[in-house]
């Protein structure tokens, strides 16, 4: 009986625990930045519906969220959420420069892929070699 009661309590805690809303991601090209209003206009690159060209989105941000080298024409990845049902304004909670595959390398794997232990070139192969044997 006690096991069943513990199971019911655990089940109730799992069901009644509120879930946190997931942050949405916006990948796009910066069209304009207004530092006084802390807003920028971003043209999304990938649309959620996949129906082609999307309308520009107004992104609000704080000064510490904006990378130093962001300018018009930069590709940015922005985390946050839409503040209206029409998906026109987006509140930024984090931002990073670049498109796919850019950013830091916390494990060092990407930096080690292009290096070899004996300095023979990328991946440890001799130039023009097939990669098999020495």
Structure description:
- There is one protein chain.
- The chain has a domain at 24-97: OB fold (Dihydrolipoamide Acetyltransferase, E2P), CATH 2.40.50.
- The protein is built from two helices and five strands.
- The protein has helices at 2-16, 109-113, and strands spanning 24-34, 39-44, 57-60, 75-82, 89-97.
- A hairpin with a 6-residue loop joins strand 4 (75-82) and strand 5 (89-97).
- It is extended and about 65 Å long.
Q: How many DSSP H or I helices?
A: 2
- As residue ranges, the low-confidence spans are none
The string of secondary-structure elements, in order, is: HEEEEEH
The proportion of residues forming helix, as a percent range, comes to 10-25%
Query: Could you tell me the mean pLDDT?
Result: 76
Distance between the termini: 68 Å
Strand content range: 25-35%
CATH class of the domain at 24-97: Mainly Beta
- In CATH terms, the superfamily of the domain at 24-97 is Copper binding periplasmic protein CusF
CATH topological fold name of the domain at 24-97: OB fold (Dihydrolipoamide Acetyltransferase, E2P)
**Record field, number of beta strands:** 5
- Shape verdict: extended
Strand order of the largest sheet: 1-2-3-5-4
Q: What gyration radius follows from the Cα positions, in whole Å?
A: 23 Å
Instruction: Specify the biggest β-sheet.
Output: 5 strands, mixed, barrel
Quickly give the CATH architecture of the domain at 24-97. Beta Barrel
Class computed from helices, strands and strand pairing: alpha+beta
């Amino acid at each position: 009986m006690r096991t069943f009661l513990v199971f019911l309590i655990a089940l109730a805690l799992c069901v009644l625990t509120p879930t946190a809303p997931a942050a949405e991601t916006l990948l796009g090209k910066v069209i304009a930045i207004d530092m006084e209003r802390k807003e920028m206009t971003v043209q999304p690159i990938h649309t959620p519906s996949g129906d082609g060209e999307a309308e520009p989105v107004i992104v609000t941000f704080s000064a510490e969220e904006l990378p130093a080298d962001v300018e018009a024409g930069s590709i940015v990845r922005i985390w946050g959420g839409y503040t209206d049902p029409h998906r026109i304004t987006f509140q930024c909670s984090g931002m990073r420069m670049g498109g796919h595959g850019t950013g830091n390398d916390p494990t060092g794997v990407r930096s080690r892929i292009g290096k070899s232990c004996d300095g023979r070139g990328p991946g440890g192969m001799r130039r023009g070699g097939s990669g098999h044997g020495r």
